[in-house]
Amino acid sequence: MPVVEIVKATVSEAYKADPSILKPVFDFLVKVDGCLDFYYDLRPQETYSDLLWETLEHHRALQRTPGYPQIVGLGPVIEGELQMNHVEFNKEVWQALNAPITEFARLALKQGLQTATKDRLYEIWEEGGAKIDAKNKHAPAIWGQAVEDSDVFWFVCGWESVKAHTDVIHGDLANFAPLIGNIGEITDTTTLHVKLSKAA
């Protein structure tokens, strides 16, 4: 199963003026050994990127290369620090990333709660994911733990549209509401819907 590098960064004024300055980054990364795919969502203020690596070690090897990170070419594109997590998901990722809309949820376990555990979160996702997959043409819903922080998890799901997501949940609210409530009790969650493009 590939490892997904999830990156969030603030874009520079130079990028806002000329988005084509991101292309050299694509051209560089797609030639790096072990980089399988590169997906991105470009917004006026932020960029969300997902790089699929054959293994985590392939990305670590790039990070050990002399001149990294400057050689990647992101300098002109972003401002400040980028946020990065590596995740090995429980199922294949391409359906979710290639869907018209991709839902990303970042969840951090609440501290000091005995019930806030990886096992409990995965139990909820197993039940909820099966319900989503039964109604969603872009199944499967996928999830995994961040390498960088054992208390951080990611849930990713492809959808036909944001409305399709809303319709599935509200169409079976009696079953989904308790699951959503259980997740809210044990995690702090941030959810985003993006339209990803794939680097050529």
UniProtKB/TrEMBL annotation:
Superkingdom of this protein's organism: Eukaryota
Name assigned to this protein: ABM domain-containing protein
High-level lineage: Eukaryota, Fungi, Dikarya, Basidiomycota, Agaricomycotina
